[in-house]
Write a structure and sequence with these properties.
alpha/beta, 12% strand, binds coproporphyrinogen III
Length: 341
């Protein structure tokens, strides 16, 4: 069965499109009252992630409500550390928290390499969502990039500096590589499982790329992202490394289709550094959506013109903030959908 709206897939592959496709990072979530209603019925965030029927429902909500050109499966990057042996909790208003963290060689040895069947609820949620979407739009699967997952496994929670995780890189480089390789192997199994379950496209999130130096980023992050890009094939693949402006040239050499940009990255400069063989995704500052409607429309059109008609997927430079107004978010989506070159 073929997709009724395949703009995203065609743009990712560099094919001609009638208009620029648009979706939003964190499009399923607290900006939607409909999401908050489902969430309120349940025990918490994890129950939502782990119940395929609910995950499916909130995955499809932004397609119906915002009119985006893709759905992204409702889950979290932290399901991988959990499948490897480090369970997480999502604490209201605080974020993720791990009871056990990685400290010793023993801790690394005891972690398992996750297989897709260790995350049956994600696979079922993808299968169910594909069925319910009925090919209206593509379904995006995702995972965290190895460095970002490593950072949570060492740190045990969010952090401004991720200095514990960086200390581990400086003081135990060999052990760091051992752990990063285990995460990489797990992520490859997980993403290939998502393709088998029905994902039409995949995205890797390296949310904490920006705390590393360029040299560390090559050594401890890009090396593993590159392995994943080589081992996961069959659907278009996006790499989004937040704040990794220094790595754009190397990102252009990855075996992937699309590179995500955040709002600090100049569009023309990014195109020059990354080259013409990649689609670029992004990169509006989510805070623009606090502005008035005219400003949102003007800035969005400016962004579309700067990227041009080819090889662009419109998105934000990072996820939506929970206190953004739904109608302003919709204004961004509608402006992209109405624009023609
Ligand atoms: O709509 C979508 O984008 C799909 C779902 C999705 C979630 N998390 C749901 C979620 C995706 C793609 C993620 C990825 C994710 N999770 C990342 C990478 C992207 C990024 O933002 O940089 C990271 C770093 C995480 C880890 C994580 N999950 C944090 C730090 C938090 C707490 C911050 C917050 O917003 O509360 C989460 C929780 C989380 N994941 C929420 C959602 C909708 C909010 C939880 C809630 O509903 O209470």
């Amino acid at each position: 069965m073929s997709l009724k709206n395949d703009l995203l897939i065609r743009a990712a592959k560099g094919e001609k499109v009638e208009r620029t496709p648009v979706w939003l990072m964190r499009q399923a979530g607290r900006i939607l009252p409909e999401y908050r209603a489902v969430r309120a019925k349940l025990g918490g965030f994890k129950e939502l992630v782990e119940t395929p029927e609910f995950a499916c429902e909130v995955t499809i909500q932004p397609v119906d409500i915002l009119g985006v050109d893709a759905a992204i499966i409702f889950s979290d990057i932290l399901v991988i550390p959990e499948a490897m042996g480090l369970p997480y909790q999502m604490i209201e208003a605080k974020g993720p928290w791990f009871e056990k963290t990685v400290k010793t060689p023993e801790d690394i040895k005891n972690l398992k390499i996750a297989q897709a069947h260790d995350l049956p609820y994600v696979m079922k949620a993808i299968e169910l969502t594909k069925k319910e979407l009925n090919n209206r739009v593509p379904l995006i699967g995702f995972a965290g990039a190895p460095w970002t997952i490593f950072a949570y496994m060492i740190e045990g929670s969010g952090s401004k500096t991720f200095s514990k995780a960086k200390k581990f890189l400086y003081t135990h480089p060999d052990l760091s590589h051992l752990l990063l390789q285990k995460i990489t192997d797990s992520t490859i199994n997980y993403l290939n499982g998502q393709i088998l379950a029905g994902a039409d496209m995949l995205q890797l999130f390296d949310s904490w790329a920006g705390v590393l130096s360029p040299e560390q980023y090559n050594q401890f992050a890009l090396k593993y992202i590159s392995q994943i890009c080589d081992a996961v094939t069959g659907v278009p693949f996006t790499v989004f490394a937040k704040d990794a402006f220094f790595a754009r040239k190397q990102m252009g050499e990855l075996n992937c289709d699309t590179i995500g940009l955040d709002w600090t990255m100049d569009i023309a400069e990014s195109r020059l550094l990354i080259g013409d063989n990649k689609t670029l995704q992004g990169n509006m500052d989510p805070c623009l959506l606090y502005a008035d409607y005219d400003t949102i429309k003007n800035e969005t059109q400016k962004m579309l013109k700067a990227f041009g008609p080819h090889r662009h997927i419109a998105n934000l430079g990072h996820g939506l903030y929970p206190d953004l107004e739904k109608d302003k978010v919709k204004c961004f989506v509608d402006t992209v959908k109405e624009f023609r070159f």
